[in-house]
């Protein structure tokens, strides 16, 4: 019997969206459990590390989104075929983590003068990393880590969505190779169906606009 899967997170893409997309790519049914913010204080002590997302596999909770993505990559054939390929994927994933920190700092800042400083830092950081990722995408024919779709590409389009949502529709225009990565991922039937039908959130930009 196939295992049962439940993804627990809030009603937002966040760190759970890659997990949802990987399962959708593999056309693996899962329960999309969206926790209300007001319920989180009572749920938090019941989680393994006091945080979300969690993937439940046959009722057993697994924490840490990156570990979950690596696990599901193996389940859905989105991992590398050997140690060298997995290294290439891990390098890409660690690069994404370096990009997320300044983006998070910018999005959370409420002081307008400090927000502008963090925006400048974010743009400088992104110019470097997006330039490198563009090189990878061009070398690999529209994929980040390898010349085929991997978990790195699915993680990337969630970063893409956040960047465009926070910095504007035209922000990614200078990166045609990364645009091709987005197109390649969105062409996958399971991911396409998920994005088309997933619950609406308050984000200004949704990948659905590019289907």
TrEMBL record:
Entry keywords, A to Z: Transferase
EC number: 2.5.1.18
Stretches assigned to the GST C-terminal domain: 82-203
Ranges for domain GST N-terminal: 3-80
Gene Ontology biological-process entries: glutathione metabolic process
GO MF terms held by the record: glutathione peroxidase activity; glutathione transferase activity
Record field: catalytic activity: RX + glutathione = an S-substituted glutathione + a halide anion + H(+)
PROSITE patterns: GST_CTER, GST_NTER
Transferase in keyword set: yes
Class in the EC hierarchy, top level: transferase
Oligomeric form and interacting partners: Homodimer.
Family: Belongs to the GST superfamily. Sigma family.
Name of the protein described by the UniProt record: glutathione transferase
Lineage, uppermost ranks: Eukaryota, Metazoa, Ecdysozoa, Arthropoda, Hexapoda
């Amino acid at each position: 019997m196939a295992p049962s899967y439940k993804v627990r997170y809030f009603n937002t893409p966040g760190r759970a969206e890659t997990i949802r997309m990987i399962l959708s790519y593999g056309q693996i049914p899962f329960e999309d459990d969206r926790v209300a913010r007001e319920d989180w204080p009572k749920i938090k002590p019941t989680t393994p590390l006091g945080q979300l997302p969690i993937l439940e596999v046959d009722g057993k909770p697994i924490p840490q989104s990156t570990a979950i993505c690596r696990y599901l990559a193996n389940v859905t054939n989105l991992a590398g075929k050997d140690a060298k390929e997995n290294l290439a994927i891990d390098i890409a994933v660690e690069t994404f983590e370096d990009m997320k920190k300044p983006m998070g700092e910018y999005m959370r800042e409420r002081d307008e003068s400090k927000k502008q400083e963090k925006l400048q830092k974010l743009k400088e950081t992104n110019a470097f990393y997006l330039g490198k990722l563009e090189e990878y995408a061009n070398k690999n024919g529209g994929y980040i880590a390898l010349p085929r779709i991997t978990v790195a590409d699915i993680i990337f389009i969630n970063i893409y969505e956040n960047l465009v949502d926070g910095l504007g529709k035209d922000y990614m225009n200078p990166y045609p190779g990364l645009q091709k990565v987005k197109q390649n991922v969105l062409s996958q039937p399971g991911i396409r169906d998920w994005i088309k039908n997933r619950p609406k959130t308050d984000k200004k930009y949704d990948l659905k606009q590019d289907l």
